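Dear colleagues,

As part of the handover before I leave the project, I'm documenting each prediction I ran so the next person doesn't have to rerun anything. This entry is a single chain, and its sequence is reproduced below.
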Amino acid sequence: VAGAGAPSSKRPLGDVAASEPDAKQQRTSTTGKSDPRAVLKSMTWPATINQWGQLQKKIWAGHPKLQSGWIRCWSRSQDSEYYLRLSDKVTTFNINEVLAP
């Protein structure tokens, strides 16, 4: 979500602007986890929550599982992943709030 706020604060979903990054880069780090920034640069930017949901395994391959009902998204303004609860569109940047037990 674009916007300011403390990294662990939850806030309603805002705009997710669409654009098409042009760089094609390696998608997997030496740890076996994908590099979401590189994956996103190699593809058309997801513009909807549905698109983010459909691309979870591609963008975040090998990353820890989230609790049911949460997905990962990428904030361009914070240059960081954040987490979206699908049921009420609440977001947080704190992974500890959303990791699966």
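The CA atoms of residues 45 and 85 lie 20 Å apart. Residues 36-41 form the longest helix (6 residues).

All the best with the project,
I.
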